[in-house]
Write a structure and sequence with these properties.
three-stranded parallel β-sheet, alpha/beta, two-stranded antiparallel ribbon
Amino acid sequence: GATYSKWAGKCENCSEWNTLVEHIPDDAELGKNAVSRGRFSGKVLESVSINDIIPSDSSARLTTGFKDLDSVLGGGFLLGSVSLLTGQPGIGKSTLILQICDKVQGEGKVLYVSGEESADQIKLRADRLEVKNNDLLFLGETDIDVVRDAIGEIKPKLVIIDSIQTMYSDEITAAAGSVSQVREITSQIMR
């Protein structure tokens, strides 16, 4: 009667080896709306010629104000997309991000979420870089639920999370920065 999400050789209930048997639940056990892996979902798939696709407004881009960065991004940040900026510590990621926040002034609110640095640290860097965007809002937070609520309330044009490995979700028991936490946080951000 025990359930295992991955292969196991020993049953934890009876402490016997090689007694586990794979059981694939049928639709009645899963519930009538559940779709199990590898089963037909009932959805009719329809392929479309790439030439017949008309891009929607969601293909609009938010330019960063940096010609080379916009070029790398295909013309700027694709609205509704998630982009990951990586690099060695101290290389200037947070500095570049603040400069982008300044360049997008007038495009809408920007929410800068920091789980690593305090408001004072971000403000000192912003002053040094002469960032004057009145639509730039700061949130010092590491709980993704709080961040998600803030995004829903503020409805910013751009959200910066600095950095992803400091964020955590109560739904995952692993420590912040673990692969499972980063995967869950990224999934929630995309949604």
